Amino acid sequence: MNEGDVVLIPLPQADGKLKNRPAIILRKMPSYGDLLICGISTQLHQNIKGFDELLSNKDDDFVSSGLISDSVIRLGFLAVLPKKSIMGSIGEISPERHKRLLNNLSRYLTNKLD
Question: Where are the strands (E) in 1-114, listed by range?
Fold first, then answer.
């Protein structure tokens, strides 16, 4: 598994149940090999402009992502999971999109809080 891969992983839902959902591997965590992932949703209204990323069937990396519908990559839906939790890879996003996601998350985390 590589950073930028679109994978299937059991993610907790609002009701607490696990459901197999697509996610992006953002970073491999140091030491134990756990993965920082963010969820993907087809609920486009959940997009936070300037933070999340919309992935449309018109985008160059849509086909390579393995997704079947326009989706939002939700940086607000983060988890750190062991590699063994990944059911498999279905595709990948472009290196440019992956870098934008990391930059958006980094910018948010390092903003001065009032």
Answer: 5-12, 18-28, 35-41, 53-55, 71-81, 88-92
pLDDT in tens, 54-98: 999 999 999 999 999 999 999 999 999 999 989 999 999 999 999
Cβ(24)–Cβ(6) under 8 Å? yes
Question: What class does CATH assign to 5-110?
Answer: mainly beta
Is residue 31 within 8 Å of 80, Cβ to Cβ?
no
The Cα 13–Cα 10 span in angstroms is 9
Measured in degrees and rounded to the nearest 5, phi and psi for residue 103 equal -65, -40
pTM exceeds 0.85 for this model: yes
